[in-house]
Amino acid sequence: MSSDAAAAVTAVWRMESTRLVAALTRMTRDVALAEDLAQDALVAALEQWPTEGVPRSPGAWLTAVARRRAVDHFRRAETLRRRTAELGQDLQEAHVPDLDEAVDSIEDDVLRLVFLTCHPALPPESRAALTLRLVGGLSTREIARAFLVKDATIGQRISRAKRTLVGKDVTLPTGPERDARLEDVMAVVYLIFNEGYTATAGTWMRPELCLEALRLARTLASLVPDEPEVHGLQALLELQASRTRARTGPDGEPVLLEAQDRGRWDRLLVRRGLAALDRALALGRPVGRYVLQAEIAACHARARRAEDTDWRRIAGLYDVLATAAPGAVVELNRAVAHGRAFGPDAGLVVLDRLDVDALGGSHLLASVRGDLLARRGDAGEAAAAFREAAALTRNDDERTLLLRRAAEICPAPASKPAVAVRRLHDTGSPRRQR
């Protein structure tokens, strides 16, 4: 097979794999089996598509192949059950799904999969890891980097989670059960978007993950229309996604928020985001982290020019967010906002109160410190901080950006080392919740 043909099949696979695994999980009630069947379908595609061509509906083709493999699997299991019974041995009957009925479901399989991977039988860290693996399509290594743990640890979490979920009810939960999982579901949708918006490793963005998270957020908002935080999540993602085209330059290089051409922002997504925020506030109920972050994103969206940004309001919103959803990443962004609203020294005061260990060796702190020091005019220390952040980040494009900023303000290496720390999305971007 030519490399071009393999690349074409892989590209289609990346678009279809999540939905395929989700549909197969609904059919088989076994996440691990669903992944195996999906991989079988991929192998078949790699064998047939280069010579026969990519089918008109790749997703339907893959589903049909995987479904046939599932039928074969359960037939073999049923044959084994009968033969074992004939030998007089006990064998617990496995669930044999009605695949003809299952394949006709019109509910959102991916959202169903997210609710399944957020099952209360799983510990929180396993829920997030499994969802990023199945829905986000991240490798074990990428997930381990995102959570700052060893690859083997993440692999074990995912394997145990898959075993725990075998046979669990795959229908979309309702009532109190749905409400109990809703916070976790929103958190993993947010994680998926963040991984797409600024990837943990490799390139600057993974737009397909942003689109999938945005689709899930919209579906979730229609499923739970009376929950303000769900509308807040949709608003936040719509507003952040509106900047996608402006976040890269002509050669694909990263462009930070204040340098972006706001004429390239997607005004339709901005209007959708502001409308979702209005729906959240109109419910008249207490709001939390997603509505507050959406309010911050709305401040940026309403400013036609970077210099028109209402940084005092943003700083005030981050103060509220720090109370509603305290955390190291929130404090980092609060430092940025205070630095813009009240001067770099004010931002450094917030930054100096931060527990460095809470960031787990992230490059965020060095990035923020470098920005604040540069605004204060301390070129040497700022450049050293940017270089420190560049050494710590695993995102290649972000490393290039940080090194460029260091070179622009101080071409010669600084003699005074900066405090060792880690990672900043462009100001106003969503933050990972780790």
Describe it for me?
- This protein starts with a helix and ends in a 25-residue tail after the last helix.
- It has a domain at 1-106.
- It is 66% helix and 0% strand.
- By secondary structure, it is mainly α.
- The protein is built from 19 helices and no strands.
- 44% of the residues are buried.
Annotate the secondary structure layout.
Elements (H helix, E strand, L loop, with lengths): L2 H26 L2 H22 L5 H29 L12 H4 L6 H9 L6 H11 L5 H8 L3 H15 L9 H23 L9 H17 L4 H14 L25 H16 L6 H14 L8 H14 L3 H15 L1 H9 L11 H13 L2 H14 L3 H14 L25
Helix pairs in contact: 1-2, 1-3, 1-5, 2-3, 6-8, 6-9, 7-8, 9-10, 9-11, 10-11, 11-12, 11-13, 12-13, 13-14, 14-15, 15-16, 15-17, 16-17, 17-18, 18-19
Mean pLDDT: 82
Radius of gyration: 24 Å
What's the β-strand tally? 0
From the spread of the alpha carbons, the general shape counts as globular
Please report the distance between the alpha carbons of the first and last residues.
41 Å
Helix count, DSSP H or I runs of 4 or more residues: 19
Poorly predicted tracts of residues? 87-107, 417-425, 427-434
Q: How much beta, percentage-wise?
A: under 5%
What is the helical fraction, as a range of percent? 55-70%
